[in-house]
Design goal:
With 176 residues, the chain is α+β, with helices and mostly antiparallel strands. The chain is built from 3 helices and 4 strands, in the order βαβββαα. It folds into 2 domains: 62 residues, no CATH class; 114 residues, no CATH class. Strands 1, 2, 3 and 4 form a 4-stranded antiparallel β-sheet that branches. Helix 2 packs antiparallel against helix 3.
């Protein structure tokens, strides 16, 4: 359409709103192009709290629409699995870290009760304070080492999912 001239051929579109992490914006746009979607230039991209919200559109009369939709659902499922794998890198270490901190806090509480008892039991206070402080210091190191181990364990699975996504996008592109 040039100036105010109307378009000669009618084109119907279907629309899709997508919400992704801000750092994955480009990846999603590039992948969705392989299923016939294009960024809707009429709708602004919104960036809020580390997330990007954008609108995509594609021609309603696109060929192989059923197969493209099936591939797109498979693509979305792979992305969801990848997100869960990414989250699992920190979940287990976080649980171990919280448990260690909680146990340290319990020892410290016992230490405080020992010193405030009548008569004060200083020897028990010191005895309980040592593992209490250890329970407050060790979580940092437990978390770092745990994330490192989980990352080494999970990264090959993420790589497999990325290869699967690449294959799905290739199939979608070939159908267009």
């Amino acid at each position: 359409m040039k100036g105010n001239e109307p378009e000669k051929d009618y084109k119907g579109y279907e629309y899709k709103r997508v919400v992704v992490k801000e750092n994955q914006f480009s990846f999603y746009i590039d992948c969705y192009k392989n299923f016939g979607w294009a960024l809707d230039e009429n709708t602004p991209v919104k960036n809020e709290r580390g997330q990007s919200t954008f609108q995509m559109k594609r021609d309603r009369t696109i060929l192989n629409k059923t197969e493209l939709t099936r591939l797109e659902r498979n693509f979305d499922a792979c992305l969801l699995e990848m997100d869960k794998l990414e989250q699992s890198k920190t979940t287990v270490p976080m649980i171990l870290t919280m448990s260690c901190g909680l146990i340290g806090t319990a020892f410290m509480a016992g230490s405080v009760f020992a010193v405030t008892a009548t008569p004060p039991m200083i020897w028990l206070c010191v005895l309980l304070a040592v593992p209490g402080f250890a329970g407050w210091i060790l979580p940092y190191f437990i978390y770092r080492k745990g994330v490192e181990k989980r990352t080494q364990k999970i990264d090959p699975f993420i790589e497999i999912k990325q290869n699967e996504i690449d294959e799905i996008c290739r199939k979608g592109f070939s159908l267009l």
